[in-house]
Amino acid sequence: MGDRSMETLAIRRLGRPGDLGWVVMAHGEIYAAEFGWNADFEALVARIVADYASDNDVAREAAWIAELDGRRVGCVFCVAADQTTAQLRILLVDPTARGHRLGARLVDECIAFARRARYERMKLWTNHPLVAASHIYRSRGFRLVEEEAHHSFGMDLIGQVYALDLRATVSTADSTTAERAR
């Protein structure tokens, strides 16, 4: 793997040729390898990506790609659930890029965008095996508000809905930044 201090990390807006296809492919491959999920999950991601690509409001919706040495290794989407609620969708970090805090950085980017777009709340849906992602969400102030057992992607899962009040200050760093902006 080499010296990690020499690796170049970047988070950029989604929009280069191949980005959309990479998001679908990476989700399908990684979730099959790590959790045994079937192609139904990849199909769900394909629908989310297609909906975003065909009808997104650039003022209220965005997506990001994380890169490591110029190679795509992560993503997250922020879409409108309704007029006042943003939805964080399809967060992913490739296993080869974990340990760089890219998941946290992608979530932070998504939350900051949602606040700038003046959403009041953010929600997301995940499943119980995604422990690392749930840790990131909770560390950013998301609260688990709903759980429901379901059979999807070839597995018995517990779906989880997390919510975040975007009007509340999440951390001291955020409040310091907000104070400077006034």
Task: Give structural notes.
By secondary structure, this protein is of the alpha+beta class. It has a single domain, classed as Aminopeptidase. Helix content is 37%, strand content 32%. The chain has helices spanning 19-35, 39-54, 102-116, 131-139, 172-181, and strands spanning 9-13, 62-68, 71-80, 85-93, 121-127, 143-152, 155-165. The longest helix has 17 residues, at 19-35. The termini are far apart. Mean pLDDT is 91; it is low at 172-182.
Give the N-terminus to C-terminus distance in angstroms. 45 Å
Q: State the strand order across the main sheet.
A: 1-2-3-4-5-7-6
Tally of strands: 7
Using the CA coordinates, give the radius of gyration. 16 Å
Poorly predicted segments:
172-182
CATH topology, which one? Aminopeptidase
- Number of DSSP helices? 5
- Looking at the overall shape, the CATH architecture is 3-Layer(aba) Sandwich
For the record, what CATH class applies? Alpha Beta
In total, the number of domains comes to 1
Shape summary: globular
The SSE order reads: EHHEEEHEHEEH
> Helicity, in percent?
25-40%
> Which structural class fits the helix and strand makeup?
alpha+beta
